[in-house]
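G., the chain you wanted modeled:
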Amino acid sequence: MKYKIILILLLTCSAFAFSQNKSEKSFVEAKYKCVYSVKYINDIAKMTYGTEDHFILLIGEDLAYGDSFLRSNMVSLSSNPKTDKDWFKSFVESFKDGTIVNYYSSLLMFACIYKDYKENKIKVIDKISGNFFLYEEENEPQSWILHDDTITIAGYLCQKALCQWRGRDYEAWFTPEIPINEGPWKFHGLPGLIIKLHDTQLHYEFDLLEFKETNEKININPLITKTFKYFGTHKLQNTDRITFLRTQFGGRGDVIRAADQAKLGITYVPSGWTYSYIELDY
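Predicted structure as tokens:
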């Protein structure tokens, strides 16, 4: 009997240790937090702006993570029992008068971006209607050309850099005063943090609002479990970047949206917007 009790205790402790270890692996500590404002054109035919968002970048020792403030907070607020009910009610009501529609017209803003320094990979979670996807690409920096021009932005002495990348020309301003070669979205590789970035057509603009040390954690559970929580738990489908973008913007994307909406008894109506996605090489 004594041996049975000891065995049960050992198994219980082992299970607890495994559970704790698995939980610890689900999060990676961040060292720095950057907050960028994001402005984007969601209809290049009319040159109308979408809802301005914030891009949150958490930087750890071996991993960086970027996400939309609106997307991440909309989910956490809707699933949190302590949510300000009046706020969330007004958020939902905004769908009816169209004030929030522009947010959903930007397919840029949903993507969750992991920059894995150890594997030298960028891992992206993105969606098409109710379908959730995971794709990987090499974490190669843009081919930057440094210029001697300098300017002070947000109190930092910044230097100019230019690049051509995936169908667009970009101008960036980085600061050697923060010797971290990171930046918003998938941009990085300069000898200092990117403070300001925009394409030359001004379809997409990123401006640093805040940089600070942090003890926040990066949730890597979606990469481990291959599932993603967004108003429910969704299985991630593996794909590649080009296939994903072609599906997202081609006829197949419309078919997916139409089929998903049909399940809910909704008649699919194309938005009529003329998108100009940040990556144009698909």
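Residues 2-25 form the longest helix (24 residues).

Shout if anything looks off.
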